[in-house]
Amino acid sequence: MVNPVKEFKVDELLVKVYRTRDEMGMSSAYDVSKKIRELLTMKDIINIVFAAAPSQNEFLAYLSKEDLEWNRINAFHMDEYIGLPSDAPQSFGNFLKERLFSKKQFNNVFYINGNAPSLEEECARLTRLLEENPLDITCMGIGENGHIAFNDPHVADFDDPKKVKIVDLDERCRQQQVNDGCFKTIEEVPRYAITMTIPTLISSEYIFCIVPAKQKAEAVRNTLMGPISESCPASILRRCKNAILYLDLDSASELDL
User: Fold this and answer.
1) Exposed, middle or buried by CB within 10 Å (0-12, 13-18, 19+), for 200?
2) Which residue ranges make up each domain of the chain?
3) Which site in 69, 126, 144, 197 is 20 to 30 Å from 173, CA atoms measured?
4) For 231, left (φ over 0), alpha (ψ -120 to 50), or beta?
5) Which residues contact 126 (CB under 8 A, 6 or more apart)?
6) From the CB of residue 25, how many other CB atoms can be counted at a distance below 10 Å?
């Protein structure tokens, strides 16, 4: 385990800054694994939701090497595009299947079907699963526009009455998928998605937010230094106890450290 070069709190949110994204990934995976082991001493089954994005690669790689009782874990992913081919590598379910879900024997993996005959019924199905399996841990990232899951600023609602909903994606969010190398052009990026809402994501008892790279520096600054507002959805993390934000020096580059 590597110690952070800087550690501080902003409101309720603990922030840990590491030299490199590899150190950040290693340390976040260590912390999540430790929390999983702790929770499994108190519960038979725990429920974890994961984010699917290149920003999570190091974290997922290290987590997948951990010797855990995976068969006592239910896994969710927090969002999914609508209308992609079922075998598309850009599908968030497929992304996580390749990096984690297929590598371990989970108790259950609850995939979101972005091609369901009724998208409203798919949201209702996922809502029922979340009600039956309340989240213990959220492992997440932050988008370039400050989004968490696919709660872009124009659809984000800190008091959202829904657990899951259909959203349209803003242009900056869609462009990020191109910047990340997931799609060649913005025209290829789907315009709609199913996402867990902000109240669902932060309902977990423990939140681990992993955010590397220079492209995220502005969003990190707005998250930590701006107002707590839907204009930067990730800013809600500052109200969350037991939440940790993991940064590397690149993503922390616009902070006054």
Assistant:
1) buried
2) 6-248
3) 126
4) alpha
5) 110, 112, 163, 164, 194, 196
6) 24
Whole-number pLDDT of residue 257: 78
The structure tokens listed for 149 are 């899951």
**Which runs of consecutive H residues, i.e. helices, occur in 17-75?**
21-40, 57-63
Quote the CA–CA distance of 176 and 127 in Å, as a whole number: 28
* 92/79 Cα distance (integer angstroms): 7
The CATH number given to 6-248 is: 3.40.50.1360
Radius of gyration of the chain (CA): 17
Per-residue pLDDT of 133-179, as tens digits, reads 999 999 999 999 999 999 999 999 999 999 999 999 988 889 988 88
Report residue 234 as tokens.
Answer: 């990730």
Classified as helix, coil or strand, 196 is: strand
Number of C-beta neighbours around residue 13 at 10 A: 23
Structure confidence at residue 83 (pLDDT): 93
Instruction: Give the number of other CB atoms < 10 A from CB of residue 227.
Output: 10
Sheet holding 192-196, edge to edge: 79-81, 192-196, 164-168
pLDDT tens, position by position, 77-96: 999 999 999 899 999 999 99
pLDDT of residue 187: 92
Q: What residue type is 30 in one-letter code? A: Y
What are the tokens at 252? 């922390």
Query: Which residues of the chain register pLDDT less than 50?
Result: none
- Predicted local confidence at residue 176, as pLDDT: 87
Q: State both tokens at 72.
A: 């006592």
